[in-house]
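Closing statement on the 2-acetamido-2-deoxy-beta-D-glucopyranose sub-project.
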Amino acid sequence: MKATYFLANFLITSLSIMVGLSLSKLARPAIPAIAHHFGTKGRYEEVNPHLLDDILFVNKSLVAPPSPDCRAIHMVSVIRHGTRYPTTKNVKKIARLFELVVSHASGSASWLNDIKTWKMWYTEDMDGRLVEKGRDDHRHLAMRLAQSFPTLISEDHLRANRIEFITSSKHRCVDSVKAFQEGLHRLWDVQDMDYKHYVDDSLMRFFDHCERFVESVEKNKTALKEVERFKSSAEMDAVRRKISSRLQIPYSQFTPGNLAFYISGQFV
Ligand SMILES: *[C@@H]1O[C@H](CO)[C@@H](O)[C@H](O)[C@H]1NC(C)=O
Ligand SMILES: *[C@@H]1O[C@H](CO)[C@@H](O)[C@H](O)[C@H]1NC(C)=O
């Protein structure tokens, strides 16, 4: 349940530069209705449903300065990587669970047949890498931020290296920070610049490097007691029993670990 981020540090001069943006609507992609049940974070589209119709939609009144006298000076954005594949560890768990259902579940329901004939298409080498939607998350976010804060995120500032990009070394984060810059380059039709970023794991993956965090949270069983309480709760038990009964697979085959995070979205 770790989150990995990159930081976009927008360093701003006192100049106020307006950038005229003409943004065309992009075609609405085919998104399965169950999409919002999946993933380790909510989609931007969940928070702002206007994005389903127009991925570049910005509500200008929400990003207006609190008073007409205020001027944007500096902005720091901490941005999570985009939509990604499951990590290797989770691909293995999904595969084991799928095997269990294929080999042990019984019944004649058509949904069971649908599950059994599903193709397990996740492969271990996907290992948490970005999917194309994840790159789009960042391209579009960059364009929306540029539209929201045109005096900060502008082509001039980008070209003058006043916008600083810091990322962790994690491949999905490095790919996200590149996609973010790609979004800006596309917006301004920049063709003569490379992408730039700094890797700083002590800042962006503090959960690996910060001794106090590792000792007091990561290795500390009591710090994560809510997770244990969730796994051993009556609600979790009810879900295990319900799934076990519908698939006609012994209850003991489902552990809270596999059930909670890997099966419920698909089978409940
Ligand atoms: C934009 O935000 C304002 C303030 O929250 C809200 O009143 C308005 O309905 C929003 N406009 C759209 C199109 O969502
Ligand atoms: C472990 O976590 C608990 C609960 O947050 C906290 O009270 C305790 O001080 C932590 N132990 C260490 C060694 O940091």
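The pocket of 2-acetamido-2-deoxy-beta-D-glucopyranose (ligand 2) is lined by residues 216, 220, 222-223 (CB under 6 Å). With this model delivered, the sub-project is considered complete and its resources will be redirected to Aim 3.
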